[in-house]
Amino acid sequence: MSLGAYLQITLDIKPENREAAAKVYTEYRQPFLNQIEGAASKNLIVRDEVVQVLHGFNTVEHANAYLDSDLFKNNVFVGLQALWSSDSVIDIYQVT
To answer: Is the pLDDT of residue 32 over 70?
Structure first.
């Protein structure tokens, strides 16, 4: 599967909540890869300032569709929402 887009979610998560955020990432990584159409990769990036999750998709349309999926709205979002200090930032990039 060729990579055509990235969905990057940047979360402002305090250091004391990062372990819980990593658990949410780990719990839903494989279901994401197995169940979401066009999903190609999912990586957790922990920086001093923020936590980022970088999702790879084969198209921009599949990246957008994931944000409306039950897995994202009912599981991932719910699991992370209580952990962040401010609203998350969501960016979608097309690979050229």
So the answer is: yes
Dist CA 53 CA 22 (whole Å): 10
Number of domains observed in the structure of the chain: 1
Q: Rounded to whole angstroms, how far apart are CA atoms 40 and 86?
A: 28
What average pLDDT does the segment 3-13 reach?
96
For residues 40-57, b (16+ Cβ closer than 10 Å) or e, as one string? Answer: bebeeeeeeebbbbbbbb
pLDDT for 96 equals: 86
pTM exceeding 0.85:
yes
Alpha carbons 37 and 40: distance in angstroms, whole number:
9
The CATH number of the domain holding residue 89 is 3.30.70.100
Which domain covers residue 76, as residue numbers?
5-94
